[in-house]
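Per your request, structure below.
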């Protein structure tokens, strides 16, 4: 394996780790609290191929051929009518590859959430608390020479930290003529903590910075034969650092154990969801960053299978 230049390695580490945060939102609807016993689940395969990344200053720089494959799970189940819904979100498999240099594969981080309904009219309003669990490996071990370990240090499967997010979601559904439509918006504050582990080959992170997470989306369905099976969705989502936004993350720690430190992005995505019957659905989508720091400069493609009852 070839050794990465130090400046490229540091910036790439942040970009690779941040890519999980740039994942497109699945068919989430937390503004609507599910009835007891009602459930929704989504299993999605995502792929990113990038030869450029957004540096800490927002410019794009070249990198060696990077590929990432993830298998993501999202689920929600209603517990108490209007007042309580539980969610599970995370990566069952995360494989990151620097072509001709090395790769890592393993379980990613998981997030558990509880949501409660605040309003049902004139629109839906809910409050959620999500806890990120460090189930992934922030410092995977490589089989081989020290250069293999250097690459593995750049490709962890988890961030090594517990983080807590408080979110507020609002949504409304309506119809006009032969069109059904929904709109939803979400705003959250992500409190990040010191990671439990850092690769020995990399300097430890210092000031871990909190983030604002936001999302807005709308979807519509046309009430016509055959077309009524499809939902067409457009969304905008992003992260914003709320502390010392101008700090340089390319020097010092590459934030290997602090997944997402210094990450900002404004992502625009489209998705189509086809209802197959018996509660099953098939989705296809793509999203990419219109503005970003410390994430790959490439679109993320997703193919998903959904189920609900």
């Amino acid at each position: 394996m070839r050794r990465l230049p130090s400046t490229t390695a540091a910036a790439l580490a942040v970009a690779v780790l941040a890519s999980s945060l740039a994942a497109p939102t699945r068919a989430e609807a937390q503004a609507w609290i599910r009835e007891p016993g009602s459930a929704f689940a989504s299993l999605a395969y995502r792929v990113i191929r990038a030869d450029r990344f957004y540096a800490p200053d927002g410019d794009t720089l070249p990198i060696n051929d990077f590929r990432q494959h993830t298998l993501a799970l999202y689920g929600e189940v209603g517990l108490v009518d209007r007042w309580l819904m539980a969610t599970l979100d995370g990566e069952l498999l995360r494989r990151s590859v620097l072509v001709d240099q090395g790769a890592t594969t393993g379980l990613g981080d998981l997030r558990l959430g509880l949501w409660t309904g605040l309003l049902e009219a004139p629109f839906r309003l809910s409050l959620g608390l999500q806890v990120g669990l460090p189930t992934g490996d922030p410092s995977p071990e490589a089989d081989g020479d020290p250069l293999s370990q250097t690459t593995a240090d750049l490709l962890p499967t988890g961030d090594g930290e517990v983080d807590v997010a408080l979110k507020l979601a609002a949504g409304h559904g309506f119809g006009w003529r032969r069109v059904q439509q929904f709109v939803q918006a979400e705003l959250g504050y992500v409190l990040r903590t010191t990671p439990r582990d850092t690769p020995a080959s990399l300097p430890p992170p210092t000031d871990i910075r909190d983030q604002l997470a936001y999302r807005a989306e709308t979807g519509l369905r046309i009430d016509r034969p055959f077309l009524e099976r499809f939902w067409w969705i457009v969304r905008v989502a992003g992260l914003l650092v709320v502390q010392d936004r101008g700090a340089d993350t390319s020097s010092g720690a590459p934030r290997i154990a602090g997944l997402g430190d210094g990450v900002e992005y404004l992502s625009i995505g489209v998705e189509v969801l086809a209802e197959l019957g018996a509660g099953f659905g098939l989705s296809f989508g793509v999203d990419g960053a219109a503005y970003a720091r410390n994430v790959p400069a490439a679109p993320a493609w997703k193919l998903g299978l959904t189920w609900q009852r």
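DSSP finds two helices and 14 strands in the chain.

Regards,
D.
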